[in-house]
Amino acid sequence: MVTFLIQLISLLVQAIPLLVIIYIVLTYIFDPYHPVRQALANIVEPMLAPIRRVVPLIGMLDISPIILIILVQLLGNFIISILLKIG
Q1: pLDDT of residue 87
Q2: pLDDT at 63 (0 to 100)
Q3: Residue 3: Cβ-neighbour burial (10 angstroms; 0-12, 13-18, 19+)
Q4: Do residues 68 and 51 make contact, with C-beta atoms less than 8 angstroms apart?
Q5: What is the pLDDT of residues 3-55, one digit of tens each?
Q6: Separation CA 84–CA 87 (nearest Å)
Q7: The pTM is what?
Q8: In whole angstroms, how far apart are CA 61 and each of 4, 5, 15, 52, 58?
Q9: What is the per-residue pLDDT across 50-78, written as a single tens digit (0 to 9) for each?
Q10: Residue by residue, what is the 3-state secondary structure of the chain?
C-alpha cells in the first residue's frame, strides 16, 4: 500500500509541472476560449490562484507557475520521505 502511494505521488509530482508548462505555452498559442486551453485552465488555475493572491507580479512577469512547480516538488518529496519512514 505504501509503495502504491509513493508511486502515485511520484506520478503527480511529475505530471503537475508538465501540465503547468503546457498550460503556459498554450496561453501564448491558443485563444482563451479554445477547448484544450480551457480544460488545462480548469486543472491548473485553481492551483495557481492562491499563489497569485500572495505573490505580486514582477513587472509583467507572473512567477506563480515557477513557485507552484517548486512547491509541488518540495511537498511531494516531503510526503514520499515520510511514507518511506513509515513503510
Answers
A1: 75
A2: 96
A3: exposed
A4: yes
A5: 999 999 999 999 999 999 999 999 999 999 999 999 999 999 999 999 999 99
A6: 5
A7: 0.91
A8: 38, 36, 24, 12, 5
A9: 999 999 999 999 999 999 999 999 999 99
A10: CHHHHHHHHHHHHHHHHHHHHHHHHHHHHCCCCCHHHHHHHHHHHHHHHHHHHHCCCECCECCHHHHHHHHHHHHHHHHHHHHHHHC
Distance CA 10, CA 78 (A): 11
Q: At what angle do helices 35-54 and 64-86 cross, to 10 degrees?
A: 80
Question: Pick from 9, 35, 37, 16: which is nearest to 25 by CA?
Answer: 37
| Nearest-angstrom CA–CA distance, 61 and 44 | 18
